[in-house]
Amino acid sequence: MTISRRTFIKASGGTIAGLGILGTLNYKDWILPALAEEEGEKVAYTFHPPNCGGRCSFKCTVREGKLVKIEPNEWPDSVQNKICLRGLSEGERVYSPDRLKTPMKRVGERGEGKFVPISWDEALGTIADKLLELTSKYGGESIIWAGSTGVHYPMLLLPQLLGSQIITMYDIGLDTTAAGGQSMIMGFAWSTTNEITDSVNSNMAIFWGNNVLETSMTDSAFFFDAKESGTKMVCIDPVYSTTAAKCNQWISLRPGTDSALLFGMIHLILTNNWYDKQYVRKNTSSPFLIRADNKTLLREEGTNKFLVWDKNSNSLQPYDTPGIYPELEGEYTANGIKVKTVLSAYIEHVKDYTPEWASKITEIPEKVIFELTKEYALGGPANIQWGMGGTDKWYHSDTMGRLATIMAGLTGNIGRVGGGVGQGTQHGTCWSMDVEFGGWELPPEFKAADLEGKFFEYVNKPNAVKAGVFQGNPIHQYFPDYNKAKEWFKGFEFIVAVDSHQCDTVNFADIVLPAGTCFESEYDIGYLITERNHVLLQEKVIEPLFESKSDFQIEKELAELMGFAQYMPESPEEFVRAQLNSPDPSLQGITVESLRANKCVMRLNVPNEPYRAFMDHQFYTESGKLEFYSEDFIEEGYALPIWEEPNEASPSNPLYEKYPLALGTPHTRFRAHSTYSNARWLLQINAEPLVRINPKDAQARGLSDKDFVEVFNDRGSFQCRCQLANDMRPGMVQISEGWWSRYFKKGDLQELLNPNINPRGNKLIFGPHIALLDTLVEVKRVEE
Ligand SMILES: Nc1nc2c(c(=O)[nH]1)N[C@H]1C(S)=C(S)[C@@H](COP(=O)(O)OP(=O)(O)OC[C@H]3O[C@@H](n4cnc5c(=O)[nH]c(N)nc54)[C@H](O)[C@@H]3O)O[C@H]1N2
Ligand SMILES: Nc1nc2c(c(=O)[nH]1)N[C@H]1C(S)=C(S)[C@@H](COP(=O)(O)OP(=O)(O)OC[C@H]3O[C@@H](n4cnc5c(=O)[nH]c(N)nc54)[C@H](O)[C@@H]3O)O[C@H]1N2
Ligand code: SF4
Ligand SMILES: [Mo]
């Protein structure tokens, strides 16, 4: 084969063909080298769905039916034209010899991963019969349908038609966000902060347990815009993360102690009068009155309105009475009941949470706490963007969310240009979050069954579940104490797995169905998504490979076999048209036709400026104010948040003597969770799981770099090599989440994770979450 220089140059530059030809990689079986350029070439546009939060739009080149090149598509604003190493390596993953090629049925033990090929007729016939049988025997609720977060077409219609339970991503995290949002919103708590594109208007932007440069790579440009504009970028992270390395200041702390830092900061703000009195009086529940007798807020009889002490009339008045001047501080007697303002209660409450105390708990020097607080409070606008990994996955994560929100409220940083506080990974705050797509209507008699709590709790609670249909890898990714979870799944009567690759969940299946990747479809049009203030559409890039079928087609054919054909859309296009058939003004003029005429990416009809939450200071709470005091949690002694040591990963835990290291499992740029675990191009630069440990901790255990080790606790263990890393904080180890079990010599990191659940979470919008970081382990050298 000869390659002309012209073809070579044309094909390289980050393209799949280029990478294939250039170096050590040799995937001759799928790369079509040096074709006669444009001859027979087709271009198709699609978006990339893995749950990295990016959802980049791709321009794909297809030659002779093969995907040969993936490039960033042109968005209306070129700053969005992006692609990362994962996107670029898709070509290899799509054509990987590892692909699931045919339907299969289990021949070994459940979990063993031994299968034999069967026909689609046999596979779908078996599934349809079994699901109908289980539904009539035990009811629809006996079947759970769970999809991974990056699945671009989650099957949602058939489970409703069967009355099954549908499990969603809200099962994993979000307590920080829910608890923070609780002060602002009595419902869905996304988009409580300002879009990252607004950080150029901040004087300070704090990335708090949020490795944005790795976990929201498509926002990197906005991060650097802000930094270059002079915004002081601060990272609060026990580890010198990618983001910490690019910030102006890195503040390291003992893992799980963020709330103690916030208590210290709030103490300083309140005792030094660094708070914005005017803002606080007008926009927060600070002047509301807490009753000494039962801890509820004082309300007006009849109207049930919150009462405040009006300075003008020296009397109690409903908080929304025009012309009043509510006192922020004070204790009063109202109809014989002692009351005190919420702000006074806070001032008293944080008295002992001094910076000195906070410094002891967090191990941050007191001076650093003082300076950070002063700058945050007085040098605003300041923005806090917490993550969904670092601060959200602790037993007491809710406290961090509530305190950060209160601190932002005290300093007038909510509803302010350059301000904001909230979930800041994955471009989770933007105009797109408010879009209301139309939906595919099913007759009202078809409804999913109510969930029986949280998916990860099912393992330990009586429940109705006998069978599961899984798209992607939820068995592996959604459970702490994985050994226990595996036992639960082994007891199932029936499991179906749908995936393009043999991830760990597939190994548990009775029937495996090979799914097409996001590039493959039987139909010209795929699915729709809104991201980064745009609407993106998928076109078919290539036909389904091997014997695979798209998730849509699988759901449709199963529905037909079960007698539900009339309720299903004919094609993804029909589904997409129903979604776009919405009165939402931001979708005006956006149709399948206009999208296709615009390379499948169009900006929503939304303002050009960054999304900024609560600019009108109208909060969706009972009072319409930012609520600092939570009556919902009086019973738990948590109406005012309190400091609690981590549930497991704390030196005060007796277990600490045996297991003195906190285990972190951050997200990595080399994968989207478990997707790309087996992507060979990425494995060339990220070859194996490594547990990262500070040299001091390594030395204490007699470990050298690349030694083979076992990481263990009472719940389980895994074996891999260790990496001595100065960026790791002593007292903790980290390994990136998402490695499939097969990459460990023994065990799996999911086995070690803490399954304890904070019951308080049941009162939050998304329910409780997994405390995966609240985990203690020990490390020892073992023979390889
Ligand atoms: N490339 C890539 N991007 C992703 C994903 C992916 O898998 N790959 N997943 C996406 C998803 S679904 C999510 S939820 C997000 C998660 O996004 P992030 O919230 O950024 O998640 P992590 O990387 O888990 O954690 C962020 C940082 O928190 C630090 N940390 C650990 N413990 C603590 C602590 O106690 N306090 C503080 N302050 N920091 C701590 C970690 O060292 C880490 O650097 O990423 C999204 N983006
Ligand atoms: N230890 C630890 N565990 C964690 C986390 C952590 O920080 N630490 N983070 C948690 C978080 S925040 C999240 S969001 C979850 C994410 O975990 P998941 O939501 O499970 O995400 P992935 O692991 O990316 O799952 C992707 C799987 O779906 C398959 N897939 C991709 N596209 C399609 C498709 O179109 N159709 C079908 N049928 N299959 C497809 C892929 O091949 C892959 O096997 O992980 C959680 N688990
Ligand atoms: S993996 Fe995420 S950031 Fe990378 S190309 Fe795909 S959508 Fe974009
Ligand atoms: Mo997540």
From TrEMBL:
Keyword GTP-binding applies: no
Keyword Cytoplasm: no
4Fe-4S Mo/W bis-MGD-type domain residues: 41-98
Keywords attached to this entry: Iron, Iron-sulfur, Metal-binding, Oxidoreductase, Signal
UniProt-recorded Gene Ontology molecular function terms: iron-sulfur cluster binding; metal ion binding; molybdopterin cofactor binding; oxidoreductase activity
InterPro entries xrefs: Asp_de-COase-like_dom_sf (IPR009010), DmsA_C (IPR041945), MoPterin_dinucl-bd_dom (IPR006657), Mopterin_OxRdtase (IPR006656), Mopterin_OxRdtase_4Fe-4S_dom (IPR006963), Prok_Mopterin_Oxidored (IPR050612), TAT_signal (IPR006311)
Family: Belongs to the prokaryotic molybdopterin-containing oxidoreductase family.
Name of the protein: Anaerobic dehydrogenase, typically selenocysteine-containing
Organism: Desulfitobacterium dichloroeliminans (strain LMG P-21439 / DCA1)
Top-level taxonomy: Bacteria, Bacillati, Bacillota, Clostridia, Eubacteriales
